[in-house]
Amino acid sequence: MTVPQPTQEELQERAAIDRSARYPVMFFFTSAAAWLLFATVLGFLSSLKLRVPGLLDDYAVFGYGRLYPVHLNALVYGWAMQAGIGVMLWLMARLTRSRIQHPVALIVAGHVWNAGVALGVIAVWVGAGRAIPLLDFPGWFWPIFAISYALTVVWVIPMFHGRRNKLFYISELYLLGAAVWFPWIFLTANLLINKEAAPVMGAGVGSWYFSNLIYFWMAPLALAVAYYIIPKISGRPIYSYPLAQISFWLLAFLAGWTGFSRYMGGPFPAWMPAVSGAAAILILLAIVATVANLLLTLKGCTKLWEYSPSLRFTVLGMLMLAVYAILAAASSTFAFGKNLQFSQFVAGLDALAIYGFFSMTIFGAFYFIVPRITGAEWPSGKRIRTHFWFSVYGIATLIVATLVGGIAQGGDLAVWDRNFSVSTVNSLAYVAGRSIAWGLIVWSNLIFLQQLALMFLGKGRKSAGPTLIHAEPGEAPSARAAAGLTQA
Amino acid sequence: MNSTSFWKLLGTLGLAFVLPWLFLVVLPYLEQSKAVPTPYAEGEEVGGEVDAYPDRTLQRYGASDYGRQIYAAEGCAYCHTQVVRPTYAGVDRWRPGWGGREGEQGNFARETQPGDYVNEGVAPLGYQRIGPDLANVGHRITTAEEMHRHLNDPKSFARDSGMPAYKHLYEPSPYGEGLVPTPKAEALVDYLLSLKKDQPLPKAYLTGN
Known about the structure:
The structure holds two protein chains of two kinds. Chain A is mainly alpha-helical. Chain A has helices at residues 8-51, 64-96, 103-126, 142-153, 156-161, 170-195, 199-234, 241-255, 271-297, 309-331, 334-340, 345-374, 381-413, 420-456, 479-482. In chain A, helix 2 (64-96) packs parallel to helix 12 (345-374), helix 6 packs parallel to helix 8 (241-255) and helix 12 (345-374) packs antiparallel against helix 13 (381-413). The longest helix of chain A is centred in the first third of the chain and has 44 residues, at 8-51. Chain B is mainly alpha-helical. Classes of the chains: A mainly alpha, B mainly alpha. The interface between A and B is large, with 88 and 76 residues.
């Protein structure tokens, strides 16, 4: 099956859309990558603090209880959300074939967002945090993010509404969903928690927000990217369009019910964690169907994976999404979860969502988008390979160390008369594994930021062919040609 | 795409969200915020001024809300939970001192209930158990002096403790030798000593009428 070649006019139209997106999208991308490096360095430091608690403990800012929330919030609001917003803008513009109309407003909103993250991080760091995961920023911070988000994402909805082509892409559906769901969960969580009227439900709303951020924002965005990049690079239509639609609606109707199983056995009515656990298991249907659908699209041209950086990161991200969904479902059952609850595994699973499936897919989008909007190719295929493998080894080490370490820790705590110190001592090796994992990730992101900064500064390679992972620069005009699939 | 189908689509996306939003989040939140204390029946009194569960006159924080704020600001909840799970979810209740006071008629140990977090703003349920559960730490560490020592030098309690020393909460004494706690440390210790989430439950509360 072949795809019709675009006409000259269409190519010019695409180029015009890319030009209109250049400055705002690159602003979001570059600042996101800078936050990513910052957050991963903090991830490394905080895991080091678990191994060596006495490290620099004369200073308040080096407490684990401050480093970890700074790491987590910078990772999500600094990196993940900004990168996601940038991808959302570009992808919606390209899919609906409309130019980005107000680049200056977007850049202003981006500055507001960055200022919000910076102030929030400083506030947590100097000791004004709330210690509610991902809602750590002090209570009066939410309007900064709400206004900035509204100023950026409000353009996505008219783009979708004013679309000219009749074809309905599944990616558009995911983008639209993410755009409208996020403000709702964000406002609900912040307003209810600020109200402080029901303490236990406040904590429950916090964990509901965390889980919804993953399934209502990160997963839809990652899937929008995957549904765009995989058919685009393989040159094939999606394996099954009805399956894609069914799994979208399945995810949409189930995601909001997740979250309370983090506190199963906690002071909640028993039905709430039970419903959340059931939703997390049923979501497996949606995720497994989606990932299978995407992989079947690639059937027969998996060789592309060796050459195209976008495809390689995206496919890996999708595999991690499946792993995440399986582990999240398993840990919300009593059989598997009661020992893992409150263990290191919690931190590993959260990192798998944010750094594993979401970031990997978004890296895929970066490798696709940035050359198109800057009009230059990535400087080095070798560096892309470094970024890929260090990230993969990092996140794999992290998830294995926290899963095995969590089982060990939970097992120690499940023996009622075993001294608590036993679990601490038995964790030490796994905690060292976490430090190594974050060390690998720091290195991969240093490389990534350097490459992205070169592109931002206009120092990319000027060449007719894209940068591939395993080919000399300029040697092959496309991944398809490099993989020997077409005559290019 | 025409307007009607656009609004239909947005409506369906909204419906997907509004069901859990209403039934899992907003309604339970409102219900809990309206919960009223259950009075003890004749002969159930626990002494003192306390006549109902939860005891809304309970002051956890020494001077105002400060101790709880320090607990949040230092991120204590990232390593310590305040949840005693029921027996089907774990052995928390049997861990010595975790489940609450030793009573005259045996162990009172019980799982935590929503009412135990009254006046706490947002319940610090916690994230991981890098350190022990603190729901009833006020029963395990009973004096301010001991609690200060725990914050300032945790290794003197457990050689393998994974807890950092909170040295910035203490300053050199102006009168020569030793350290004195800052107001932050005093407030935090007040809060920690007050953590006894084991108020005896009235029968009416347990049976629901």
